[in-house]
Fold this protein.
Amino acid sequence: MTRAPLVALLAVLLALAVVPGIPPFWITLANNIGLAALVTLGLVLLTGVGGMTSFGQAAFVGIGAYTTAVLTTVYGLSPWASLPLVLLVTGFVAALLGLMTVRLPGFYLPLGTIAWGISLYFLFGKLDLLGRYDGIGGIPPLSIAGVSLASPQAMYVVIWLMVLAAFVATGNLLSSRTGRAIRALRGGGSAAESFGVDRARTKLTVFIYAGLLAGLSGWLYAHLQRSVNPTPFGLGIGIEYLFMAVLGGAGHIWGALVGAGAIVLLKDLLQRVTPMLVGADLQMEAVVFGAIIVIMLQTARDGLWPRLVALYTGGHHRQLAVPQADSPLPPRPAVAPGLTRRLLEVEAASKNFGGLMAVKQVSFGVSAGEIVVLIGPNGAGKSTTFNLITGVLGLSSGKVSFDGHVLADASPRQAAALGMARTFQHVKLVPDMTVLENVALGAHRRARAGTLRSLLRLDRAEEARILADAARQIDRVGLTEHLSKPAGSLALGQQRLVEIARALALDPRLILLDEPAAGLRHFEKQALAELLSKLRAEGLSVLLVEHDMGFVMGLADRIVVLNFGTLIAKGTPAEIRTHPAVIEAYLGGTE
Ligand code: ADP
Ligand code: MG
């Protein structure tokens, strides 16, 4: 679904405001929807797209509202002059809280957001400067060139212009280099990290972005309402924003609009209808509201937005054109001429898990343009060795160097920077991102564009180069016809190929594959072997961990055999086939 019809729809809504005779009550509702949609949009990015659940967004709205209230009433600033300061303050607080919370694992992060959601709420109510629980009144309205925007109609235009801008900018962000990194966070982000994404920094970026949108909403709220008090910034409202995000469809930005609209209208309806049904003194609307939310979550857990899209498109995916660009991404500089040393050198590498020596004094190397295979029985230490090389685990002792650089401490990003690209034993793609976007994530560190450029859509030339390169890698692995499909809709064998294409998009010198043939059917294994031979012929080095001896023997230039963490043999397939220690340990004499 393109966003053009949606942008047009919003523009029409905006134009409606100038039609005279619209009941003020509708305008008020529309304003509330717009204010909530801004907060929810940030939450969609944070929670639905980035996988970080926050219950505390209402507090950021409060920070925005109180900051402008104080600046305009105490310090006499004009509302417009206070806006940059509002964004500065909310951004600063979001960065501070983000630094403390985004690294928290699992449910500690949501718990952290609850904690600051509660404490900020009480802070608003306790500070004399903020008028304690009475709040601050007499906030000036917005005005443009001396014309007051005090009326709800005027504010409607301001609010919805900002909503429109925020949605367009956020859409730009999501379909960019930074956006792909954000979307790859949800599964844990370890795959993104192996392609050079700074996970902690990306999380913080989203956190601050969501905070800024909430702060903007608070600024608008303060100048619409002209007074603030702590009530709308409590934890309960924070939870309501989360409902909006989930109900609309937490993975989709336009879901924020649908969710905010649905909840604001539902709450209003209940507040008017329930007293008529059950009597005004019972105040049942909160109970009914909760019950409806639970039912909605039971029946439409992905939210309303995907359903609306399916109605509109009939469930078909849009076929993307194969992207083209004027110029290619710059290739990795060639290895210094005359350099004959090994590309990868593993020297006496050891890894100790508690008392268990998973890898003991293992040494081997990989030269340019060769396929080396690591084999060994289950638990032999193959994956551990692999993780030591790719920086996922730190060495207990020994040394790993690549292209003359010693890998300092465990850092997948350093490995990526040096030109190592990997695939995962358990496929780690972003299932709802297209094949093209998944592969484009592999080119992350070959491009520069940051958050601001992406928001403003100034990254398009570079983005075209990234996508064209990704399309080329997809062609190399023979998946061009699947380019527009969500990666999760492909068969396992194809998903493994997508992972290889993503690795190729890094423009690697060495590609590392952990059991790439596992779960593949016979003809898929043959195709994979052909692909790896082709890559070797193009000068790429390959290190793979493999179980399937048939697959390995025809393909490997050299084989390294591990058993109980120790290297027991290395050599050509022919040498390994007849090596007594290997027959003893691995083949169990079956040959
Ligand atoms: P392989 O990939 O050859 O099957 P692994 O490298 O996964 O073997 O494991 C080697 C040994 O190290 C096994 O005994 C395994 O249980 C142990 N091991 C692997 N990872 C960890 C870990 N994170 N903590 C403790 N022990 C581990
Ligand atoms: Mg393994």
Notes: Residues 199-225 form the longest helix (27 residues). Residues 27-234 form one domain. The chain has a mean pLDDT of 88.
